[in-house]
Amino acid sequence: MRSQNYLIIGAGFSGAVIAEQLSKNIDCSITVLDERNHIGGNCHTERDGATGIMVHTYGPHIFNTDNKEVWDYINRFGNFKNYTHRVKAIYQDKVYTLPINLHTINQFFGKNFTPAEAEAFIASRVVKIAEPANFEEQAMTMIGADLYKAFMYGYTKKQWGCEPKELPASIIKRLPLRFNYNDSYYHGQFFGIPEEGYSAIIEKMLTHDNIEIRLNTRFNSAFDTGAYDHIFYTGPIDAYFDYCYGRLGYRTVTFDRNEAEGDFQGASQINYCDEDVSHTRVVEYKHFTPWEEHDQTVYFKEYSKETGDDDVPYYPKRLTADMDKLSLYQAQVAQLDKVTFLGRLATYRYMDMHHVIAEALQLAAKFIEKHK
Ligand code: UDP
């Protein structure tokens, strides 16, 4: 078979895994396009110009997974330092621990419950719903009305721009509920932060003589794809089809950057759960790299808003109207035989880095099996 030509649209984790795997296993030339002036997609990291602190340009990314294959794979491209994500929440001027654990329950209700007492107490307050159909119902069956109203309702309304009743139940299932004092935000077995950031990892994945990266290059329907044997598309699915069925709903995030001396808030992330506080959270990046020393600090207030035509899409809303449109786009995808859609934007799902990498690895393995 002659050498193959592949086009990959998007230099985030999805595109980078495909490029890395195909370049090493198939005789091919690969072109990777990205409309931005950097690789890494929304996982992009760079050192802050003024303070030298490693900043996650598009919001905090903490690697966590139970998938050993993914963990071993990602560790080939960079050194991960031990980092446990611990988050605080402010509600009505008081500070609590998140995710909701025994400490949060005791703080909130002014008790000193044991784990068994707390579990029985929460069980007596939850609303029993056999099959929770949305975020709110799921929250009511998990934690009951008081904790839901304090920690979830206002934050979620700000974050997603709609009533939590309209959102899928799956969103809240991301967060653990614990009846002990474990305050790690995640429950994955393997976790950490890459010492030199995510962009350095993605750069290493994309380093191969047969991979050409073209930044500042936007893909659209006018782009000539005639020379390519296969295309891997990781951009928004609706953009690929020129939004012919309308735009899918996404939330975007804007960041208000601030500098200070020393330590601003004492934690990497504090969530603001009151509905009338306009930002959702404050992220202070020096706490993600406790092995580094910085006298200055830089922190970002995050604001969520509906994605306008020129904004970066972040969170797929997946409301009923979106899912109807998505089916129409997916029917179009099914008719394309040399284009593969993968990743968060191209499949319109709220995926974490480890999900994205696992799916891209599986997809690459199948493709290689067929084409090598
Ligand atoms: N959430 C909430 N209150 C919080 C933190 C999270 O209600 O203090 C809800 C909110 O709907 C959010 C979802 O849980 O979108 C998932 O939270 P996570 O921290 O995983 O969001 P991400 O870091 O991906 O923005």
Structural notes for this entry:
With 372 residues, this protein is of the alpha/beta class. Among the domains are: 1-39 and 206-243 and 318-372, 3-Layer(aba) Sandwich (Rossmann fold); 87-174, no CATH class. It contains eleven helices and 17 strands. The chain has helices spanning 13-25, 68-75, 102-109, 115-125, 135-142, 144-160, 198-205, 237-240, 320-334, 344-347, 353-371, and strands spanning 4-9, 28-33, 45-47, 54-56, 63-65, 80-81, 87-91, 94-98, 190-194, 211-214, 230-233, 250-261, 269-272, 281-284, 296-306, 315-316, 339-341. The chain has a seven-stranded mixed sheet. The longest helix has 19 residues, at 353-371. The chain is globular and about 70 Å long. Residues 89, 98, 151-152, 155-156, 159, 171-172, 174-175, 271, 273 line the site of uridine-5'-diphosphate.
Tell me the number of strands. Answer: 17
Strand order of the largest sheet: 8-7-13-14-15-12-16
How is the CATH topology of the domain at 1-39 and 206-243 and 318-372 named?
Answer: Rossmann fold
List the ions, cofactors and other small molecules found in this model: uridine-5'-diphosphate
Largest sheet: 7 strands, mixed
GO molecular function: UDP-galactopyranose mutase activity
EC number: 5.4.99.9
Protein name: UDP-galactopyranose mutase
Cofactor: FAD
List keywords for this structure.
372 residues; five-stranded parallel sheet; binds uridine-5'-diphosphate; 11 helices; seven-stranded mixed sheet; Rossmann fold; alpha/beta; 22% strand
